[in-house]
Amino acid sequence: MTQPAMTQPAIPPSPRLLSRRAFLGDCAALSAIPLLASLPANAFAAGSDRLKIGLVGCGGRGIGAVRDCIAADPAVQLWALGDLFADRVAAARDHFTKGQPGNRPRPPLDADRNAVTDERCFTGFDAYKGVINSGIDLVLLAAPPGFRPPHLEAAIEKGVHVFAEKPVAVDPAGVRRVIAIGELAARKKLAIVAGTQRRHANNYQAIMRRVLDGAIGELTGGQCYWLGGGLWHRGRKPEWTEMEYQIRNWYYFNWLCGDHIVEQHVHNIDVINWAFGGPPVKALGMGGRQWRTGPEYGEIWDHFSVEFEYANGARVQSLCRHTKGAAHRVGERLTGTLGNAMPERAITGRNAWKFEDELNRPMVQEHIDLIASIRAGAPLNHARRIAESTLTAILGRMSAYTGREIKYDWVLERSQLDLTPPAYAFGAAPPVTIPIPGETPLV
């Protein structure tokens, strides 16, 4: 089925740098929201205390998101499941009904928390429509990122609150669409919370409050890292069409994944944007395929190095890599005129400080914050900021792929790059083209 054409709405100016006072006010409001979760539940769309949720994308991350949402609030009830593939829906339903044995056992959901029926299990390219129209209050979007803009748009148009896994797009056209969707959600008073769990982690919140309040002085630079090993690959079966093969192995195709700098490293890039109050002004990147070189790995690269420059002239080095047997590092570091900050744990320098409280569960906390904001009548809307962090990662990818230094505003306002396939249907799939710096065009 062909999806509606991607619109190209006018993009309002982005607030490039938030004042520290404004940001601290936002932090104070966010930190207070979890307390609302203990208040009596207000009525949801269905006219009761019960919060019905639906899942779109029944892979491991989607199953995890449901369990996190269930753990966040006793009124949550799983209502509908949807995925392109029937076997994925069946596996997810089996997981919630029977639990998961093995090294990491997971108990089944109680009957009152699992209301999925045969009639509320949906498959095919339009499965998301079935879930969104099934009578839910909140949808969890966990399909491959290339599907996120149309899924998000359908939910907001229907009047359903959204938890959207990161990233929220794979190209500038998708980012512009998400920004417009976020504005519609604000007008309709609907929540959009993204799966950038560091924003909900109590250690990150405590340290970033201090950074934004001047604990390390003016920011002069930083680094962010996601250096890890290899990832899954599901192989190929003779009965699969090329489209099915690509979607089953979605991580290796840019129209579905955006490359690992976008799909995974966006977590760390989002922390850097958090510190600087907004996205960078430009980027210069490089990278390539050194370890994942076979055709089974599609078109994505296995390493990137990108320098992001922010509005005050500070430069941040972004490094991400997938290589088995190599050093592992995931995190961020900020440098200022008065010291340094490792947002996960400590500040050093004149105002040295270390986080020593018990860590919360940020992947549950993001759902606590989301649900509490809905009950409070002040739904959180993170569409713009996750769109900006997604586009920052896309900017880095585009610079590395083309070998050119690129400005953020050009990508946001003028880039025509749109990786959406002509139609969502089995059969032919988008061609695989491995980027070559100096030859890959800037679109």
Task: Walk me through this protein's architecture.
The chain has 443 residues and is of the alpha/beta class. The protein folds into 2 domains: 20-199 and 363-382, 3-Layer(aba) Sandwich (Rossmann fold), CATH 3.40.50; 216-357 and 389-413, Dihydrodipicolinate Reductase, domain 2, CATH 3.30.360. The protein has helices at 20-36, 60-72, 86-98, 127-132, 148-158, 172-188, 202-212, 242-248, 260-263, 266-276, 362-375, 383-402, 408-413; strands at residues 51-56, 76-83, 121-123, 138-141, 161-164, 192-194, 219-228, 282-288, 303-309, 315-322, 329-336, 339-342, 346-349, 353-354, 406-407. A 9-stranded mixed β-sheet has the order 14-13-12-11-7-10-9-8-15. It has a 6-stranded parallel β-sheet with strand order 3-2-1-4-5-6, with helices on both faces. α5 (148-158) runs parallel beside α6. The chain starts with 19 loop residues before the first helix and ends in a 30-residue tail after the last helix.
Structural class by SSE content: alpha/beta
Count the helices. How many? 13
The helix content is: 25-40%
CATH superfamily of the largest domain: NAD(P)-binding Rossmann-like Domain
**What is the total tally of β strands?**
15
Order of helices and strands: HEHEHEHEHEHEHEHHHEEEEEEEHHEH
The fraction of residues in strands falls at: 15-25%
The tally of structural domains comes to 2
Distance between the termini: 27 Å
